[in-house]
Amino acid sequence: MAKIESFRDLNVWKKSHELTLEVYKITKNLPKDEKFGLVSQMRRASVSVPANIAEGFKRRGIRDKICFYNISQSSLSELEYYLILIKDLEYSDKTDLILNMVEEVGKMLNGLISSINPKT
Q1: Long-range pairs of 22-28 with CB within 8 A, sequence gap ≥ 24
Q2: What is the pLDDT of residues 103-113, one digit of tens each?
Q3: CB atoms within 10 A of CB 35
Q4: Taking the C-alpha atoms of 72, 42, 86 and 110 in order, what is their torsion angle to the nearest 10 degrees?
Q5: If you average pLDDT over residues 58-82, what whole number do you get?
Q6: Four-way CATH pick for 8-116: 2.40.260.10, 3.40.50.2000, 1.20.1440.60, 1.10.630.10
Q7: I want to staple 57 with a disulfide (CB 3.0 to 4.6 A). Which of 7, 17, 41, 113 is the partner?
Q8: How much of the chain, in percent, has pLDDT values that exceed 70?
Q9: Percent with pLDDT over 90 in the chain
Q10: How far apart are CA 52 and CA 39, in angstroms?
Q11: What's the rounded Cα separation, in Å, for the pair 112 and 34?
Q12: Angle between helices 40-58 and 62-88 (to 10 degrees)
């Protein structure tokens, strides 16, 4: 097993970065009047996931790490809602793939938190 020296070595970060790229792609095609609404909110929520994983990785204390990983989880839930909304508004038919990615990243984040805090 390769040694994890950077947040970029974490599979959960890699997968959340892929998720962010997919969100940027899907939001390109949302209606123009959503530029400052859903597009902005979805992009910020998606970027928050890998960004907080990266920040948490550098934190020394377990509590600090878990705090940032929990923020990632919260942003992931926020993003999940936006994806449900754009699906229900019929803005995109590509949300199911991204929702599957959200679920996978969520499971990976839970695993990461459990690995550093066996009490959870």
Answers
A1: 22/97, 22/98, 22/101, 23/79, 23/98, 26/86, 26/92, 26/94, 26/95, 26/98
A2: 999 999 999 99
A3: 11
A4: -10
A5: 96
A6: 1.20.1440.60
A7: 7
A8: 97
A9: 88
A10: 20
A11: 34
A12: 160
Task: For 48-67, give one letter per residue: b (16+ CB within 10 A) or e.
Answer: bbbbbbbbbbeeeeeeebbe
CA-wise closest residue to 109 among 120, 95, 93: 120
What average pLDDT does the chain have?
A: 94
84: tokens are: 């449900």
Q: Residue type for 94, please? A: K
Mean pLDDT, range 80-90, rounded to an integer? 96
The CA radius of gyration of the chain, in Å to the nearest whole number, is 15
User: Which two three-digit tokens encode residue 7?
Assistant: 């947040």
pTM of the full structure: 0.93
CA torsion 93-97-101-102 (nearest 10°) is: 30
